[in-house]
Amino acid sequence: MNILDKIVAHKQIEVQQAAKTTSQEQLMDQPLFNEAVPSLKGFIADPGKTGVITEFKRQSPSKGIINGNATVEEVVTGYEKAGSSALSVLTDQQFFGGCNQDLTTARALTTIPILRKDFIIDPYQVYEAKAIGASAILLIAAILDVNQAKELGALANYLGMEVLMELHAPEEADKLNPFVDVVGINNRNLKTFEVNLEQSIQLANRLPADKLKISESGIHSPEDVFFLRENGFDGFLIGENFMKTNNPAEAFARFAKAIAVKANA
Asked: What is the pTM of this model?
């Protein structure tokens, strides 16, 4: 089994256990379940914003501990203040050190959209995402078949959330459907975790013209952002580049300032 297979196998068990602890009906009774949320698509499309989705991530299977000291409170508020278009919050605990409370905390402290970054394979997780305050869910094409992708996307839209579908291979574009609001291309091979920035460019021409395009992973500089923007990308999901520093919010503030300077040059 590769790392992605291991994550999905564990996630199946995790979802079954969560459903026994908290029913779908109990999720629907949570205060945030009926709250309106800001639009990820709208914030990314806003030309007055950076287009950067900043991520809160403590660890990963490929890098181990990235930042074990940063707190959600300090990082996400700093991200928003520095001009982040949206937040991505890891809620997987076993492999990424996150939790649902991280997202709920971020929702209480910020006004920008929040993407629930997890390995979503079951409708229960979509209800859960809404209950904890997510604006959008991540659907990873590599772990879903066409019908699953459509079912989960339709449910998310029905519950008032948007969908970011992540692709990392050309053949996965067949899993796009009308319920997908934003398409992300992961420059990291999810089976080997190797990074190749050219991945975004190679897949860009396969994306429908009406879908917002996000490049994910391996983005390290304002030059990368402008290169990708010139090739048709609207947004950029960046996590490790900021989280690996002692002050992720300050690192993003410098990055955002450099983008603005370059844009005005």
From this structure: 0.95
Least confident interval from 44-48, 114-118, 141-145: 44-48
Please give the Cα distance from 87 to 4 (Å, whole number).
23
CA nearest 133: which of 254, 265, 215, 38? Answer: 38
Q: Can you list the pairs that 154-157 forms with residues at least 24 positions away whose Cβ atoms lie under 8 Å?
A: 154/179, 155/123, 155/126, 155/127, 156/126, 156/129
Amino acid at 103: L
Q: Which residue has the tokens 């029913």?
A: 23
Total Cβ atoms within 10 A of residue 21 = 7
Q: What share of the chain is helix, strand, coil (3-state, %, to 5)?
A: 45, 15, 35
CA distance 153 to 163: 6
φ/ψ (deg, to 5) at 186: -90, 120
